[in-house]
Amino acid sequence: MRVALFPTCVNDAIHPRTGQAVVALLERLGVQVDFPAAQTCCGQPQYNTGYRRATEPLVRRMAGAFAGYDHVVTPSGSCTAMVRDNYPRIGAKARTEGRGDGLARAAASLVPRVLELTEFLVDVLGVSDVGAYYPHRVSYHPSCHGLRMLGLGDRPRRLLEAVEGLELVELPGAEECCGFGGTFAVKNPDVSAAMGADKVRNALSTGAEVLCGADNSCLLHIGGTLRRADAPMRAVHLAEILACTRADPTGTGWATPRARSSA
Amino acid sequence: MTVPAKGSSRERILARIRAAVQDAAEPPPVLRDYRDSHQPDDPARLLDLLAANLADYRAVVHRCTGAELPAVIGRILAERGSRTLLVPDGVPEDWLSGTAVERVRDHPPLAPDRLDAVDSVLTGCALAVAETGTIVLDAGPGQGRRALTLVPDHHLCVVRTADQVVASVPQALPRLDPSRPQTWISGPSATSDIELDRVEGVHGPRTLEVVLVG
Amino acid sequence: MSDTYLGMPSFPQAKASTRDTRLRANLTHATRTIRDKRARAVAELDDWAQLREAGKRIKDRTLRHLDDHLVQLEQNVTAAGGTVHWAADAAEANRIVADLVKATGEREVVKVKSMATQEIELNEALAAEGITAYETDLAELIVQLGEDRPSHILVPAIHRNRGEVRDIFAAKMGEWGRPAPEGLGDSPAELAEAARLHLREKFLRAKVGISGANFMVAETGTLVVVESEGNGRMCLTLPETLISVVGIEKVLPTWRDLEVFLQLLPRSSTAERMNPYTSFWTGTSDGDGPRNFHLVLLDNGRTDTLADEVGRQALRCIRCSACLNVCPVYERAGGHAYGSVYPGPIGAILTPQLRGTASAVDASLPFASTLCGACYEVCPVAIDIPEVLVHLREQVVERDGPGHRTERAVVRAGSWLLDHPAALGAVERWASRTRGLHPRRLPTAVARAWTDSRDLPELPEAPFRDWWRKSR
Prior knowledge:
- The complex is a heterotrimer of chains A (about 260), B (about 210) and C (about 475).
- Chain A is an alpha/beta fold and about 260 residues long.
- Chain A folds into 2 domains: about 5-125, no CATH class; about 135-245, Rossmann fold (3-Layer(aba) Sandwich), CATH 3.40.50.
- Chain A has helices at about 10-15, 15-30, 45-50, 50-65, 75-95, 100-110, 115-125, 145-150, 155-160, 185, 190-205, 215-230, 240-245, 255-260; strands at about 5, 35, 70-75, 115, 135-140, 165-170, 210-215, 235.
- In chain A, the strands form 2 sheets. Chain A has a 4-stranded parallel sheet, sandwiched between helices.
- In chain A, strand 7, helix 12 (about 215-230) and strand 8 form a beta-alpha-beta unit.
- In chain A, helix 4 crosses helix 5.
- The two termini of chain A are about 20 Å apart.
- Mean pLDDT of chain A is about 95; it is low at about 260-263.
- Chain B has about 210 residues and is an alpha/beta fold.
- Chain B has helices at about 10-20, 45-55, 70-80, 110-115, 160-165, 170; strands at about 60-65, 85, 100-105, 120-125, 125-130, 135, 155-160, 165, 180-185, 190, 200, 205-214.
- At the B-C interface, helix 1, helix 4, strand 9 and strand 10 of B face helix 2, helix 3, helix 4, helix 8 and helix 10 of C.
- Strand 9 (about 180-185) of chain B pairs antiparallel with strand 9 of chain C.
């Protein structure tokens, strides 16, 4: 089984820890992962802002970078949804516009192989207990794309419930959008901030130390709102929780190159 | 029908529609794989459901036998203190044998303000839908024109349970004649316009009483 | 917010709305109440998914052959004693209605709530001809008396709470007719009673009624109005003349098709198994209801929408407003921010298609969404609102709408970078190395839009791709 990691451009540039956590987690589960360096970005921000044509080279790039892998695993529901829902549309539109089948074929070759991390863990590896240890009170925010477009269902919850030491507390209004929405966050900053404030209020009401999510773009917004308020809560990606073990409960080990290569 | 002039809005709109969809693919066929009814085929349970759903939307429900009906009608009118009762053509005479209340007929058709002065109106119905708690009037015998059940503040409606109750909307429609004016009534007039808080009783009859007979 | 990188003026009124605590409280209370009720009403039917798919397909097939269905409808309405008029745009529809009213010699009409007549601003057009239109739906009455604008499809006065309604009724009813009772309280029941008294004299003397319709059945010529209060029944049955203004997309092919929509609509809109009153009429009936019936079929941008392969699904809309009630942006921005009688998610895709995107507000509407998908999930006819939003964003951007030039340049530069991984890595590396220099709040407008309410993330020591290379 050849597995490639698509950490996403956001995690590559801003939050490498999440990608590192996925590597540590998958290797612990016996899966060898690769990071094809030709990858960049799935094109979600451009596409969702109305720049479909600017996304087309990225569809080709993604298809090329991940050619030959059985699975492409990504710790982002929205980037998975971008590929799964929108790549076929981009291909179909190019065809309608008389620009051939190339994009549609590129999309079709990639789409069935791209999986969101929890889908890969639960559906492909068939695990819900990944042997993690995380002795904290945690609440879970199911980001919209994972919840409604991918239909991740209870996969993230099953993974979290199996984590030793973790106390999972219900997030009120969990299914409501946090207000990030890509460029919405800067095009409509007032509404975005109002939604973020409500999400944070609900999160803080749980008394949890950690708000867990499976999409770092949402967590940038929620986490940034939490930090601005100096709130006693931090936003942490699900992969980073699942990567923690009794041997390395804070995840400092897998985040450094030396420790990882000796693992 | 007059033939519209060329270049009329009718022709323009139809031409625009044709141009808009000429390249569109034929959409997939309609599958009617939804349920014909959500209830088991059990008349007694259907009747209970109808009563419960009518009551849930604040209709007052009475159940009785055919023999008891006149007395029930008499009691309802007496308890409400109705002095005048609007009686559409076709209401069986024996329904009224238990009341001495003054009967008002729609002959000649009553003006709206006369209807407004009537205390109650008594009708039958075309059918009733259990799943939705709906009674359907189609201006048939014993129902009168639509205004009769609209302007008075108290509507008393008799449903013959033996042959007038269906389970669901899909079962109701084939039994109704589209050429007749219909009013489907599910509880008394209501509004949720203030704070989406449901309040019964606005412009239609504020009290709906339904007698299930049989 | 004038920085050109942002592209759009953000949704013009939204900023004020998010700071209006009373508006926010009213909207939050109302939308959450109905949200939960809808979920319960829908959960009662275990075949909801099948009904939804049937509703979608019936609408799609109808739209594909809309010309045939309208011609059949026209034949059947005419055969049943009605008169059918066709209006290409709002001005023509208003002209037709005004002439019909004037032909009766009347100077006032009673109206049952109709989105189509709001869309064409019929009341204003009639007023210009010296005709007074009385809105009779409770919420429309609140809006009309308050000289306000509707902010919700189903509950146009959703932005008002009971205290505000009481004040409007007490101050204004007397100017329009029977004044509010002395010492009017603010319970919804008392307010409904005040509306009943105020409007009854108008219903009883009305000679002309104006309505829209929820459905029109082509094979029978039947129109259907779904309502709750009974004001619809009053307007549809008591006047001598009834004029119904209906969008051409409201036609259904068959009587049987109603079995789908009469299950989908009430549960999605008022969250009821069935709304209190549904009226069906086919042309005119001897001795029952209006002697004269006119149907005005309205295009007003609908055929433009129909021509758009992706956008035409908006014409499936049955105006239930479920999408408004679950929309987090609507809840915080309020209906007025959408600058149209169609607010919320459906408005954000319908208005720009019906009116075009020439104005700043209309061009901003496709961007007034986080694409969270809650609207699509509850839509009873499965309109993929996020898909259409993105599609319309593309149209706005392609048109090089106001302010998009800089944004396009940035995207173009970004596209080059994202197609050159080595250069991308270099930029990421440079950003990481200079991270100590990044301030917590940034000065330019686009950055301020983020940092006014949120901290920027702390950049890592190195990007993932560098860590990967070193650790291999």
